[in-house]
Design goal:
This protein is α/β, with parallel strands linked by helices. Helix content is 56%, strand content 13%. The protein has one domain (2-164): Rossmann fold, CATH 3.40.50.300. It has helices spanning 13-24, 31-39, 43-50, 52-67, 84-93, 103-110, 124-142, 154-164, and strands spanning 2-6, 28-30, 72-75, 96-100, 145-148. The chain has a five-stranded parallel β-sheet with strand order 2-3-1-4-5, sandwiched between helices. Helix 6 crosses helix 7. Bound molecules: shikimate-3-phosphate. Shikimate-3-phosphate is lined by residues 9, 32, 43, 77-79, 116-118. It catalyses: shikimate + ATP = 3-phosphoshikimate + ADP + H(+).
């Protein structure tokens, strides 16, 4: 069984995923980390050198491999839901949790973070709002349930997720 976390960049997928994995006594996997190990450079650099499409191809391949592998908690990149194959693969492989956050709050959190290639634009707040508008329906479609982040602590979120599984 693969327990997946989806949501916008900065929504806490990695932080919550690690603690959830510990709690469920499952290995933790992060598809972005798997990709970075494979390409040997930061994703941001890869984006700059090759553009988004080759990254999405790699991401799709890595997701297909991970969902075919042993049980784990899987934290995904924010754009994973853009590909239909990924949405189906994650949904079929076990419970998918959408960590839903307000785009304005995410922008405040990521303002100084240089590692998010999609936010290195003139209007990152507008960009985050656009990402939310496009992706929120896709996260909902992929997930079995939605957890509002924001107020609850990571520990509380993990408890709430465990109760839903
Ligand atoms: C992306 C989010 C990133 C990473 C890549 C693309 C996106 O992951 O996969 O930079 O399209 O939202 P995080 O959600 O962990 O930042």
């Amino acid at each position: 069984m693969i327990v997946s976390l989806v949501g916008l960049p900065g929504s806490g997928k990695t932080t919550v995923g690690r603690q959830l994995a510990r709690r469920l006594q499952l290995p933790f996997q992060d598809s972005d980390q798997v990709i970075e190990v494979r390409i040997g450079i930061p994703i941001r650099t890869y984006f700059e050198q090759h553009g988004e499409a080759p990254f999405r191809d790699l991401e799709e391949q890595v997701i297909a491999e991970l969902v075919a592998g042993p049980s784990c908690v899987l934290s995904t990149g924010g754009g994973v839901v853009l590909r239909t194959n990924n949405r189906h693969a994650l949904h079929r492989s076990g419970p998918v949790v959408y960590l839903k956050s307000n785009p304005d709050e995410l922008y405040r959190r990521l303002r100084h973070d240089q590692s998010r290639p999609l936010l290195q634009v003139a209007d990152p707040l507008g960009k985050m709002r656009d990402l939310f508008a496009v992706r929120d329906p896709l996260y909902r479609e992929t997930a079995h349930f939605v957890m509002e982040t924001g107020r609850p602590s990571v520990a509380t979120l993990v408890n709430m997720i465990v109760m839903q599984l």
